[in-house]
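Subject: sequence -> structure tokens, single chain

Hey, anyone have a minute? Need the predicted structure for the following. Not urgent.
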Amino acid sequence: MKLSIYGKGCKKCDQLTANAQQAAEALGLTVEIEKVTDMNAIIDKGVMRTPALGVDGEVIIEGKVASAEEIQRLLKT
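Reply:
Had a minute. Here:
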């Protein structure tokens, strides 16, 4: 599974990355985490508010730092 963090590399992006990693570990998932900081790539993906989280190419969270628990629920579905 590939998780993509979209944002310019701010503290919120770092926190979302940590929460995503924690959620994946709690579920026993092996994930690759990619940080996308290029604004053109972010816009091309359709992300209008950062930070955002994508799972296997689909943006599932945008414009907020989701908790590890919230990410876990989303990864289970």
